[in-house]
Design brief:
Layout: H1 2-24, H2 26-32, H3 39-59, H4 68-94, H5 98-109, H6 125-140, H7 142-150, H8 157-163, H9 174-199, H10 203-214, E1 223-226, H11 232-245, H12 249-256, H13 262-265, H14 267-291, H15 294-309, H16 324-336, H17 349-366, E2 376-378, E3 381-383, H18 385-417, H19 423-434, H20 450-465, H21 468-479
Antiparallel strand pairs: 2-3
Helix pairs in contact: 1-3, 1-4, 1-7, 2-6, 3-4, 4-5, 4-8, 4-21, 5-6, 5-20, 6-10, 7-9, 9-10, 9-11, 9-12, 11-15, 14-15, 14-16, 15-16, 16-19, 17-18, 18-19, 18-20, 19-20
Length: 484
């Protein structure tokens, strides 16, 4: 048992060391904006985090290489410990309560965007940038960042990479894959900064919003999200950046290598376009009477829907007054989410495609003789029955568990808010939390009961890790690492 624990703690130490270094990146921001009073708590927290991480690394440097079970436990722990340490900055700099600070940090690292802060514009520039940095790094994953800096081939990198809900390979090795991922991420972020600046944002706003847009996080430095701008040009600039964040990095890599048709050929990109069009038609019909004219209805409905489907969470209008039908449509988009291998959350587009293919395959089987051989095309692959069953079983497991935890969150939050909010609004809020989206009907705020806050924190944590690592952590806490 202890040898397994040492393996987990060694990798956790590497993650915390990276977190400590990230905190030091806030020092130039504090200096430039003259926020010298934050230096003491910032340096103290950064040094303490870095020291803790390095002590774990050196204390257990001879631990055995991680297997997948170690990696899953490490991932589940990291996504609790990292937000906990990150929340110290909100407590010491902004004077927030421990629970609200932990909620904010969890929302940041998981790329959710739900917030306990009513007026982000009143925060220090240091805290504003910390929120953006958490979402930017968290979009790809703090473990992926650790691998790109500290890991070397043959160190169990793939186990850690996969434990953070990632499997795609851009390059032959995992280390080269994660490093290329970060280069692509930097290019997309730079594109977002330039685009937002041209659209009319100030440089500080463009930097922060590009980080949270491409990371599909949704934190803003304005008080009413993107509604504060009420600028159609800025909204038009935000839409492509949000979509780029929800597209798999493998597709971006192919495009940057010169394969411009990769967007059209990728099964998840095609599914994104089809789902978006279908849901937008229904949402437009549901909201038309609310807005009264076609342009306003299309403008606000399309932005919120794209923000939901990409799991970004930017809002240009309040959805509290939307009909139950409109809320359910956006709720569906948040549950589906973006592409596997992107920064988006949800159950992922590829699983939605697999579910559709399975239903279609099953219906066709019922109309053909038993001896008929039916294959299924998934992208460029032709799948036979055995492959179909294996892929469907894996996707179904995640979808079923995802929906079970979603139902649990709805039950708890519904009992907490009582009759103040309708059931559709509660479903919307929980789907937003577990899908790591950030759209809100107004339920999430500092006045929410601590039970509701804890439940939404669990939903965010579970949604980011896609459940299995969380279940593995609970299993280890009860029965240890050994097989049943």
């Amino acid at each position: 048992m202890f040898s397994n624990l040492k393996t987990v703690l060694k990798d956790l130490g590497g993650i915390l060391a990276i977190l400590g270094v990230l905190m030091f990146l806030l020092l130039p921001v504090a200096y430039v904006f003259g926020e010298l009073f934050v230096l003491k708590p910032l340096v103290f927290t950064a040094i303490a985090t870095l020291a803790l991480g390095l002590s774990l690394c050196f204390s257990f440097k001879h631990a055995k290489e991680p297997e997948f079970k170690h990696a899953m436990v490490c991932a589940a722990l990291a996504w609790l410990v990292v937000p906990a340490l990150s929340s110290l900055l909100f407590i010491m700099i902004e004077g927030m309560s421990p629970l609200d600070s932990f909620f904010e940090a969890m929302s940041g690292w998981t790329g959710t965007g739900l917030t306990m802060i009513a007026h982000p514009s009143s925060l220090t520039h240091t805290a504003q940038f910390w929120r953006s940095l958490m979402q930017w790094v968290g979009g790809v994953g703090v473990i992926v960042l650790m691998l790109s800096i500290l890991a070397h081939p043959g160190t169990g990198a793939f186990a850690l990479y996969k434990a953070e809900a990632r499997e795609e390979r851009i390059r032959p090795s995992i280390i080269s894959t994660v490093r290329m991922t970060w280069w692509i991420y930097l290019i997309l972020t730079s594109f977002g900064i330039l685009l937002f600046f041209i659209a009319g944002m100030k440089p500080w706003e463009a930097i922060n919003h590009a980080m949270t847009a491409i990371g599909t996080g949704g934190f803003t430095i304005t008080d009413k999200s993107m509604a504060s701008y009420n600028n159609f040009l800025i909204e038009l600039a935000l839409i492509p950046v949000m979509i780029l964040g929800a597209i798999p990095f493998l597709v971006h890599y192919k495009v940057l290598k010169g394969n411009l048709k990769a967007f059209l050929r990728d099964v998840q990109c095609r599914a994104f376009a089809v789902i978006l069009i279908i849901l937008l038609v229904f949402l437009f019909a549901a909201n038309y009477s609310l807005y009264g004219d076609a342009f306003s209805c299309l403008r606000f409905s399309s932005f919120q829907l794209i923000s939901g489907l990409t799991c970004t969470g930017f809002q240009t209008t309040g959805v509290h007054g939307w009909s139950g039908t409109g809320l359910i449509i956006v709720c569906m988009s948040m549950i589906i989410g973006g592409g596997m291998g992107s920064t988006a959350g949800g159950v992922k587009l590829i699983r939605a495609v697999i579910a559709y293919k399975w239903i279609r395959w099953t219906l066709r089987r019922n109309f053909l003789p038993p001896s008929a051989i039916i294959s299924v095309r998934l992208g460029d692959r032709i799948l036979e029955k055995e492959e179909i069953v294996k892929i469907v079983s894996e996707a179904s497991l995640i979808i079923i568990l995802w929906l079970l935890f979603l139902f649990a969150g709805i039950c708890v939050l519904s009992s907490v808010v009582g009759s103040q909010f309708q059931l559709g609004e509660v479903m919307f809020e929980v789907a937003s939390a577990q899908g790591n989206v950030g759209l809100s009907t107004g339920i999430t705020n500092a006045g929410l009961s601590w039970i509701g806050k804890v439940m939404l924190i669990l939903n965010m944590w579970i949604g980011r890790l896609e459940i299995i690592p969380v279940l593995m952590l609970f299993r280890v806490l009860v029965k240890g690492f050994e097989p049943i």
